[in-house]
Amino acid sequence: MADEALVVIDLQNDFCPGGALEVAGGDEIVPLVNDLIRRTEHVLLTQDWHPAGHSSFASSHPGKRPFETIDMPYGEQTLWPDHCIQGSLGSDFHSGLAWSKAELVIRKGFRPAIDSYSAFFENDRTTPTGLAGYLRERNIDTLTLVGLATDFCVAFSALDAVKLGFATSVRLDACRGIDLNGSMETMLGRMRDAGVALI
Ligand code: VGL
Ligand code: ZN
């Protein structure tokens, strides 16, 4: 029998109100996520984990401002405020998150020249994080995703998960989004079309 896992995406201080890249209502999902953690045998977390001066930060590109885009060698990249710098308070999980049960924390976005929204592949869409191999080796084939942000790291992770053959659900009530230029509607549509169960 294959197993299922809960994957909690980037529930970190910088994505919660008061953080560097705050997502409206990001902290509101903590009690529900904690419930799901209690009820799920296998829990994994992702942690956005950038070195200072990361190429996804607007501050690394003179004249650019947060939420503008630039062309990177791997394609278009949205620029963000400095956030989730390795070891900073902003990179810590929300203090109310009951994360200690987690069997794996997968860190992403640590390569200076590539951003990584998805828990599976970096934004060049080819550099793997190792998560798929980990899940397969552990015979986990069913995933429920929750966390931040719905329209970026949750959505990119869910799209890769179905592409890799995992049965994938997103608990929308345990997610909050950024909604940049209609990205919520776009990414919800892409997930639905790809076969992600939006529940
Ligand atoms: C995220 C933008 C930049 C996310 C991470 O977790 O959705 N978004 N880094
Ligand atoms: Zn990031």
Short description:
With 199 residues, the protein is α/β, with parallel strands linked by helices.
**What Rg do the Cα atoms give?**
16 Å
- The helicity comes to 10-25%
The helix-and-strand class reads alpha/beta
Query: What is the beta-strand fraction?
Result: 15-25%
**Strand arrangement across the biggest beta sheet:** 5-2-1-6-7-8
Layout of strands and helices, then pairs:
Blueprint: E1 3-9, H1 30-39, E2 42-48, E3 69-72, E4 75-78, E5 104-108, H2 131-137, E6 140-148, H3 150-163, E7 167-176, H4 183-194, E8 197-198
Parallel strand pairs: 1-2, 1-6, 2-5, 6-7, 7-8
Antiparallel strand pairs: 3-4
Helix pairs in contact: 3-4
The protein binds pyrazine-2-carboxylic acid and zinc ion (ZN).
Zinc ion binds at residues 48, 50, 56, 80, 83-84, 109.
Textual characterization of the structure:
There is one protein chain. The chain is α/β, with parallel strands linked by helices and 199 residues long. It contains four helices and eight strands. The chain has helices at residues 30-39, 131-137, 150-163, 183-194, and strands at residues 3-9, 42-48, 69-72, 75-78, 104-108, 140-148, 167-176, 197-198. The strands form two sheets. A six-stranded parallel sheet has the order 5-2-1-6-7-8. Strands 3-4 form a two-stranded antiparallel sheet. β1, α1 and β2 form a beta-alpha-beta unit. α3 (150-163) runs parallel beside α4. It is globular and about 55 Å long. Zinc ion is lined by residues 48, 50, 56, 80, 83-84, 109.
